[in-house]
Amino acid sequence: MKYILLFSLVLAMGCSSKTKPETTSTKTKNQENLIAVLDTIWKAEQLPIRKRDSLMKLYGAESELVKEQQAIYKKNHSINEKKVKDILDTYGWPTKEMTGGEQGNWTICNVIQHSDNAVRIKYLPMMRQAVKDKKLEPRFLVRAEDRIATERGDLQIYGGQMKYYPETKSFNLWPVFEPENIDKRRTEIGLDSIAIFLKNRFNFEWNLEEQIKRTEAFLKERNKR
After folding, report:
1. Burial class (CB in 10 A: 0-12, 13-18, 19+), 39
2. Contact partners, residue 66, CB within 8 Å, separation at least 6
3. What is the structure's pLDDT at 42?
4. Is pLDDT at 101 greater than 70 in this prediction?
5. Crossing angle, helix 2-18 and helix 20-59, to 10 degrees?
6. Which of 11, 19, 123, 184 gives 20 to 30 Å between its CA and that of 106?
7. pTM of the full structure
8. In this model, does residue 23 exceed pLDDT 60?
9. CA 101, CA 97: separation in Å to the nearest integer?
């Protein structure tokens, strides 16, 4: 009986040692699956947005074609948000190696950026830590910080958020904290000047005097509440 038990133990140890390469293989497969999932998320999130924005330039923001693409985007985003939450809750903030490079970070951040403020606030500490750990570029964190501020009705810090104003049927920059110092803040974290950013990103002209007046009007209106 003693020999039977010993043989069983040796056999079990042998089987256990054979499973180690499978664990490594499974890890590699999971990484490949993660990259594939993020690629699918990116396409589902971005294609309707690009179509919507192109149609907006041609027909205006109130066009039915624009609204149609917006509806498609919202449906896709609901699915994408759940996938991104699952990734972050399972892995924490993944490394660039896990996500296949910077594109993976861009995909995750875009979905968070397009989510409700509660989602951005939930993952903000994780994003801040990812920047400290060199897993995430500061520009992605800046976008989230500004979006959270605007959703709360606060002045934004770095000027990344535009808003469509129905009363003028045009886009303008959400008011900024101390517009005269915005380039100093942006330079400190390695960003282009606000004028370059707005021109490249939104084809929008930065006007310091105008934005100072907008900030003053914003603060005056908020102080009335």
Report:
1. middle
2. 52, 55, 56, 59, 60
3. 96
4. yes
5. 30
6. 184
7. 0.72
8. no
9. 6
